[in-house]
UniProtKB/TrEMBL annotation:
It is an enzyme of class 3 (hydrolase). Its EC number is 3.4.21.102. GO terms for biological process: proteolysis; signal transduction. Residues 1-34 form the signal peptide. GO terms for cellular component: outer membrane-bounded periplasmic space. Belongs to the peptidase S41A family. This is Carboxy-terminal processing protease CtpB. Keywords: Hydrolase, Protease, Serine protease, Signal. It comes from the Bacteria. InterPro entries: ClpP/crotonase-like_dom_sf, CtpA/B_N, PDZ, PDZ_sf, Peptidase_S41A, Tail-specific_protease. The gene is ctpB.
């Protein structure tokens, strides 16, 4: 005889209570007057009955014996994987791996990955790692890790396969847009130590600030880098390079944006829980409030990088240049569970000061510049300068040869265009002032 809904609800709760570890139990005890609860508070009886039936049939009929804990853990993984690409159930090994990565040092190849339409996809290679040196690109699809196809792996399982002892090799089979056949790349794992900020002068008065990801101290490092750039005089322009920046710590993104803003909203988040709704605004103290800026982004700029680009764009603080960003506008919380395992759950979306949601849309640049290399036409007479001649006289204050910098700007067309734009902005400003 079938159970009545309330009786079935109580039975299912008891079944789950018996099988699940106490720390993972999320079902509240039923009140004594369970029969009086409102219909909207009832458990979905039909679906839970189906779950119990599937569970029991696997236990009785599957070709091999399966542990109860494995079945329930897989069920939890399935629940989370169907929500979005960034929510996940983490067993103790996966939870420890995530903890290590947030500390900024681990053995691997140096790529940030995610799931896109069910495929393991490169979000961005991290600077100065085996992946970046091998030329891996944002949006590359990883088809195999060594001999293991990735189509049946969870995101965390794929990450675990790519990590390993420094000095060991790993073979990735990738599919790249525009290529007719998959590419095979062999990488040697290294200890990945992520230095998030680099800086240099492109020319006298024009600074370059590279932020490769957002770690706890990135905001502090940006301030120090700008002060170093200003040692020889005030800056006339600054390129903030956020290309292939996969994101990181939300507060670090706020700190970096705050370095260039002296007022106004930076970002706000919205979610279902009260503590997931936050607003971050700029303080009055800033290290570079008035320096003209160009912010470089591309398809590998994600999450916290998009927060910074979106804030500076909405606040009219600089010109965003490059190509459309990745479009990850969600916030994840990592929740430890009492048994040493964990839960990574998307709890909020973030919005730019003007109320734009970045999720699945990204930041559109003010000036679109496609990645490329500047080539000088043969016979144009523009390919040789005095600084290219062997034995040329150097300027006393020359820190690097013009030919070295010219070559870099030819190799990095977007960076060259950013520098040109900063110079143009200064010319216009000087004319208006005159």
């Amino acid at each position: 005889m079938p159970l009545r809904p309330v009786a079935l609800s109580i039975a299912i709760r008891r079944l789950v209570s018996a099988l699940l570890p106490a720390a993972l139990l999320v079902l509240a005890p039923l009140p004594a007057a369970a029969q009086a609860q409102s219909p909207e508070d009832d458990l979905p009886v039909a679906e839970i009955q189906a779950f119990a039936e599937v569970f029991e049939r696997i236990k009785r009929a599957y070709v091999e014996e399966v542990e109860d804990a494995d079945l329930l853990r897989n069920a939890m993984r399935g629940m989370l994987s169907e929500l979005d690409p960034h929510s996940a159930y983490l067993d103790s090994e996966e939870f420890e791996s995530l903890r290590e990565s947030t500390q900024g040092e681990f053995g691997g190849v140096g790529i940030e990955v995610g799931m896109e339409e069910g495929q393991l996809t490169v979000i961005t290679p991290i600077d100065d790692t085996p992946a970046s040196r091998a030329g891996l690109q944002s949006r590359d699809k990883i088809l195999r890790i060594d001999d293991t196809p990735t189509d049946r792996l969870s995101l965390q399982e794929a990450v675990n396969l790519m990590r390993g002892e420094p000095g060991t090799d790993i073979r990735l089979t990738i599919l790249r847009q525009g290529e007719s056949a998959p590419l095979e790349v062999t990488l040697t794992r290294e200890i990945i130590r992520t230095e998030s900020v680099k800086s240099e002068l492109l020319e006298a008065g024009y600074g370059y600030l590279r932020v490769s990801q957002f770690q706890t101290r990135t905001g502090e490092q940006v301030g120090s880098a700008i002060r170093r750039l200003e040692r020889d005089g005030p800056l006339k322009g600054l390129v903030l390079d956020l290309r292939n920046n996969p994101g990181g710590v939300l507060q670090a993104a706020v700190d970096v944006a705050d370095a260039f803003l002296d007022d106004g909203l930076i970002v706000y988040t919205e979610g279902r829980l009260p503590d997931s709704e936050m607003r971050f605004s700029a303080g009055r103290e800033t290290v570079a409030a008035d320096v003209p800026m160009v912010i470089l982004i591309n398809g590998g700029s994600a999450s916290a990088a998009e927060i910074v680009a979106g804030a500076l764009q909405d606040q009219r603080r600089g010109v965003v240049m490059g190509t459309e960003s990745f479009g990850k506008g969600s916030v994840q919380q990592v929740m430890p569970l009492g048994n040493g395992e964990g839960l990574k759950l998307t709890t909020a979306l973030y919005f730019t000061p003007d109320g734009r949601s970045i999720q699945a849309q990204g930041i559109e640049p003010d000036v679109e510049v496609i990645r490329g290399r500047l080539e000088v036409a043969e016979g144009s007479g523009l390919d040789v300068r005095e600084s290219d001649l062997e034995g040329h006289l150097r300027s006393p204050d020359e820190q690097r040869t013009r030919s070295e910098m010219s070559e870099r700007l030819r190799e990095d067309y977007q960076l060259g265009e950013a520098l040109n734009l900063l110079k143009a902005l200064n010319v216009l400003s000087e004319r208006r002032g005159g």
